[in-house]
Amino acid sequence: MSSLSSQNQQQRAHDVGRRNETTWSDIDKTRLYGIGSVMYSALTVALHPLTVAKIRRQVATNNNQTTFNSGSFFQNYYRGLSVVVSLAIPARIIYISTLELTRELIDTNTRQFIFNPPPSMAAYEKQLQSLSPFVTPFSGGIAGGMAAVSSQAIIVPMDVISQKLIIMEATVYRQKGSAVNVMKSIIATEGYGGLFRGFGLSLFTSLPAGTIWWASYAGVKDQLNHYADPNYPMEAIPVIARQGFVQVTSAFSAALAASILTQPLDTIKTRMQVAKGKPVFFSPVAVAKELASTSGLFKGLLPRIGHMGVWGSVLSAAYEYLKFVSRKDYNT
What we know:
Helix 2 (about 30-60) crosses helix 4 (about 80-115), helix 4 runs antiparallel to helix 7 (about 150-165) and helix 11 (about 240-275) packs across helix 13. The protein has one domain: Alpha/alpha barrel (Mitochondrial carrier fold), CATH 1.50.40. The relative contact order is 0.14. With about 325 residues, it is mostly helical. It has helices at about 1-20, 30-60, 75, 80-115, 125-130, 135-150, 150-165, 170-175, 180-190, 200-225, 240-275, 285-295, 300-325. The chain starts with a helix and ends in a 7-residue tail after the last helix. Keywords: Membrane, Repeat, Transmembrane, Transport. Belongs to the mitochondrial carrier (TC 2.A.29) family. It holds the Pfam family Mito_carr. This is Mitochondrial carrier protein.
């Protein structure tokens, strides 16, 4: 009896949490993008050294373990930051818009189908309703994959230019270390297509990475959300501590799953984008074979887990707060 009561309390808390969620139509988009651009740019600046560390590990060889060893910490670990910050703003606008619109559309229509099936599916109503716990991770996963893919037209040139800057030798960087110089050099030697080197593989990488991250995050958060409800019978632990636990656990679970499962693709993509010469001379299969022969497919995994875990924890928490303060009825 006690167990049943506890389950009912958890289900009520879960239902209340869902009803209180902010929908895309509730949000003031100007406020969302304005505050969000500042917030995410600051986070990008803070975490850029982890990105640099990951890329340096991915491109390192046995004969060249480091690509630069002189200069200040800022000169070394903030290379490529300007191009990342400037291009990441429009990329995030596209990403967030696609994510929220798609997630809300899929979630709403899927629940409508499950709880109000068409006459032809009426006989399977109970079986359909048993699938309701999977709706949130399903809609989050599909939306996350589509959001990741939609922003690649901006992300790929940003990655190509910033990665070239990151791996430059110190002497070359001092002479030609600007995004404009790198872009001109790429166009002169490879044409405009050089700015989109690895585009296909980037799409192939971002789709599973985005899908796995958002599906894992949404699924874990959906299962743990009742602990963060003020009415849940855990008065000894403050609500804010429970909310933090749910947020961090969800984000790091997502980061761990996405990093491990997509690291080989990310390493291959990075190697292709920073390699010298025209893209026609490189293929994902050839790069994969080379990396596999040297056990290099998982190079940079720990920095990537750290980056995705911290980024995901802070970003997801900040995004939930950002959606709240961007509500049209906020402070009214």
